[in-house]
Amino acid sequence: MKPNDVILRSVTRVAAVIILTFSIYLFMNGHHHPGGGFIGGLSTASAIVLLYLSFGIEKVRENIRTDFKKLAAIGVLIAIGTGTASVLFGKPFLTQTFGHVDLPIFGDTELASALIFDTGVALAVIGTAVNIILSISEDR
Amino acid sequence: MNNLLITPVVIPLLTGMVLIIFQRNIQLQRVLSLIALIVTSVISVLLMNQIKNDGIQTLQLGGWEAPFGISFVGDMFSALLLLATSIVSIGCLIYAFSSIGRKQEKLYFYPLFLFLITGVNGSFLTGDLFNLYVFFEVFLVASYVLITMGGDKRQLQESLKYIFTNIISSAFFLIGVAYLYSMTGTLNLAHLSIRISEVGQDGLITTVAFLFLIVFALKAGLLLFFWLPGSYSVPPTAIAGIFAALLTKVGIYAMIRMFTLIFYHEPQITHLFIGILAAVTMVLGGIGAIGYWDLRKILTYNVVISVGFIMAGLVSMTPAGMTGSIYYLIHDMLIKALVFLIGGTVIHIAGTSDLKQISGLIRHHPRLGWMFFIAALSMVGIPPLSGFLGKVFITKGTFESGYFWLGGIGLLASLFILYSMIKIFMNAFWGETILSEEEEKGTTKGLLLPIALLTVGSLTLGFGAEGIAGHVAQAAEELLNPSLYISAVFD
């Protein structure tokens, strides 16, 4: 089945970039404002699903060679790993810490260990969400 | 602060995630999951010793103080159940090695098994009501997948029933949590206990207590066990064993926790009602157990009887009754896994679960037969086997608190258990040997080791009851004095 979806494809080419940029914004915004790993991951997943819808599963799979099941597992590993790291410092599980660092371009930046945790969450969400859609689409 | 409390949750979870990455390497999966469970059981022993020496252990996750953060609380009751969980899961895991089949092993059996353990351990340790809900969901989701493994028609049919029942009860759970939060403004179990004892348990809160009773009764199979016999008899043996040993027990644990820590002010309403449910459950379970001639059905109805029996100890709210409930709960976890594994092995050998078509297995499988005999006597409560102490204490507790009818029905239920188990023994193991060794449908190769392991565990619990008597007494005391739990969380 090859439907003629020129409009969808043309829009997707632009929209995917916008969605991905916005999801990075959401992700980075999350520490003090609405946003964070979960919502950032979910919007990234939506961009990927949009690509699947408009270009077909095979074509996207050729370009994004990721096993999303493993991606989700790695995400959880990172998230729990940062939680466990605080145990090594004798603090309660999941304790987070932050510090201010002078980065060349960004200036004075607040770096928090919660960012690594959130990265894990984002990866887990992307992996799970895309995996669900793929499983449904394979079911005939 | 005691970071050891989180490890029974984190270790199986992390291992499960690593196993997803190494999905194809079956040997590695087996070894890693076994190591994870052994480490967990060692940790639960360590925890037991710490709690014995220093009282209830707590951990405030992320350093956020209770009641604002999530507390993890390990009292002796949780630690004992953790240890029992680890032993049972090791037994079922080893059984799965040689029975579950390569196809299932590749379909993420081991990670799912570990996630199930994660959820169960988390439910035992969490000190937060919403967190309890989350851990319930964790092990339920894992169990949804495990119950459908293999995917034959009857399995899908029963698992659909199982999933719907659990989704509905989870929805009720959430509604109950919301009601409780709107009335008290907190979800920390210790804080809830303080708030409710301050304002008193009025009619509304008692109603919410009944909502929770329905939820946990559905999960534990207390009266609302219509889903249980079907769904526990369809999955592969190792999975059915772990379900029978753990899943209803988590419901029982939650019920005991809620009705000793939070809703303990109106026992003449709530606890009496639980007592009535328990009595009806025991009678109905007993009728099921003696009525059926299907091996799996008989065993699942025995699960139902024991749920009613354990709740009888809670109803009494006396030290003796509580001690009995704890003893019997631990005993029941071990013994239910054991009889389910033996039952599964019998079906594996004979190729049928109809008792009338099985006979004389003890001739070629003496060890299996005698281990089943020990398990049967232990379930009935013959001293000095492990079921005895629980039965004595529960009966004593119910008589002390004036619930003579409940204690009486409990003893009657023991007769039902005796009849049903001896029926299995006389039909399946005794009698004329109709299958020659060549005609048997399967071998017991690799299956006897986990069964022997659990038998030894059960015997140890029976003969070494003195060794954990102090621990169990402490657990019962902590359950009957909510102030101990509360002060541990808020210090």
TrEMBL record, chain A:
UniProt name for this protein: Multisubunit sodium/proton antiporter, MrpB subunit
Pfam families found in the cross-reference section: MnhB
Top-rank taxon: Bacteria
Family per record: Belongs to the CPA3 antiporters (TC 2.A.63) subunit B family.
A GO CC annotation given for this chain: plasma membrane
Keyword tags: Cell membrane, Membrane, Transmembrane, Transmembrane helix
Chain ranges passing through the membrane: 7-28, 34-53, 74-94, 114-134
Subcellular location: Cell membrane
Keyword Heme: no
Keyword Transmembrane: yes
Occurrences of domain Na+/H+ antiporter MnhB subunit-related protein (ranges): 7-130
Organism listed in the record: Fontibacillus panacisegetis
Membrane topology: Multi-pass membrane protein
From TrEMBL, chain B:
GO BP annotation list: ATP synthesis coupled electron transport
Transmembrane segments: 6-22, 31-48, 68-95, 107-126, 132-151, 163-183, 203-228, 240-263, 269-292, 299-320, 326-347, 368-390, 402-426, 447-465
Lipid bilayer topology: Multi-pass membrane protein
Tree of life domain: Bacteria
NCBIfam families xrefs: PRK07691.1, PRK12663.1
Subcellular location as annotated: Cell membrane; Membrane
GO cellular component: plasma membrane
Organism per entry: Fontibacillus panacisegetis
Phylogenetic classification of the source organism: Bacteria, Bacillati, Bacillota, Bacilli, Bacillales
Family per similarity comment: Belongs to the CPA3 antiporters (TC 2.A.63) subunit D family.
Name recorded for this polypeptide: Multisubunit sodium/proton antiporter, MrpD subunit
